[in-house]
Design goal:
With 275 residues, the chain is α/β, with parallel strands linked by helices. The chain has nine helices and eight strands. Strands 1-2-3-4-5-6-7-8 form an eight-stranded parallel beta sheet. The radius of gyration is 17 Å and the shape is globular.
Length: 275
């Protein structure tokens, strides 16, 4: 069984409250050796929930942030708590953070301000950042170009842009993460990017419970379904499934400093090194 890493999921959401043990078992049976739970809801407790889940499960790690939708809710006294959480030994990333102009739930200037502040948190804690960018790639790239990105860099999660956007992120040394969108019929541009990007710069994710890949579209997504995204990635690149899985797993281990994650399915999962 080829080892797989789901680089972005939300297992702390209420969607999994009733059957999380079964969800995790299906993931492990599918070959997943690690899952990164993104604690980026609307407040501090949602970030804390992801970190607490990672502390309980040996193959779950966490990232902490506040979603761009809720940037306007952040108060000054949240930042010390977020800084402390980000330095927890089981937290391997900062975010998701970024810009969302599709919904505009928070003013765009506030989203940009918070995005910059999370990039600073990424630098200071030496955790890679996870970008959420929807209908805002030009502004996101402008901010990323203006900022010092730090040694750890970051990931553009659930990539949905075009080839020009992809080139911009890749030129900055960022990774592109592909979700179940890669399997959708109307996602030709995303497939073109997945075929174009260097294999060493690609991750896969579920964004569970959202964006279930075909043939599960419309259902609750879960980490085991990342196999379908990997199948689609292998198809568009013309490589064996095992090669796609090995490369994306190694890329996730590198980006999130998961140097002690087992390289074979079913192996022992250890915490990453402390900052």
């Amino acid at each position: 069984m080829v080892p797989i890493i789901d680089s972005h999921c939300h297992l702390d959401f209420d969607d999994f409250a009733q059957d999380l043990p079964a969800v995790l078992e299906r993931a492990r049976q599918a070959g997943l050796v690690a899952m990164i739970c993104i604690g980026s809801g609307s407040d501090l407790p949602t970030a804390e929930r992801a970190a607490n889940l990672a502390a309980r499960e040996p193959d779950i790690f966490a990232a902490i942030g506040i979603h761009p939708h809720d940037a306007a809710k952040i108060e000054d006294d949240w930042w010390p708590a977020l800084d402390k959480l980000a330095r927890s030994p089981r937290v391997v990333g900062v975010g998701e953070t970024g810009l969302d102009y599709f919904y505009d739930h928070s003013p765009r200037d506030k989203q940009a301000e918070v995005f910059r502040r999370f990039l600073a948190l990424s630098r200071s804690t030496r955790r890679p950042f996870i970008c959420h960018v929807r209908d805002a790639h030009e502004d996101a790239l402008a901010i990323l170009h203006a900022e010092s990105l730090g040694e750890t860099g970051g990931v553009v999660h659930c990539f949905s842009g075009n080839l020009d956007h992809a080139r911009g992120y890749l030129d900055l040394g960022l990774d592109l993460s592909f979700s179940g969108i890669l399997t959708f019929k109307n996602a030709d541009e995303v497939r073109r990017v997945a075929a174009f990007a260097p294999l060493q710069s690609i991750l896969v994710e579920t964004d569970a419970p959202y964006l279930a890949p075909m043939p599960h579209r419309g259902k609750r997504n879960e980490p085991a379904f990342v196999v379908k995204t990997l199948e689609a990635l292998a198809l568009v690149r013309g490589i064996p499934f095992s090669r796609a899985a090995e490369a994306t797993t190694e890329n996730a281990r590198r980006r999130f400093a998961l140097t002690d994650v087992a390289v074979s399915a079913g192996g022992t999962i250890l915490a990453p090194p402390a900052a």
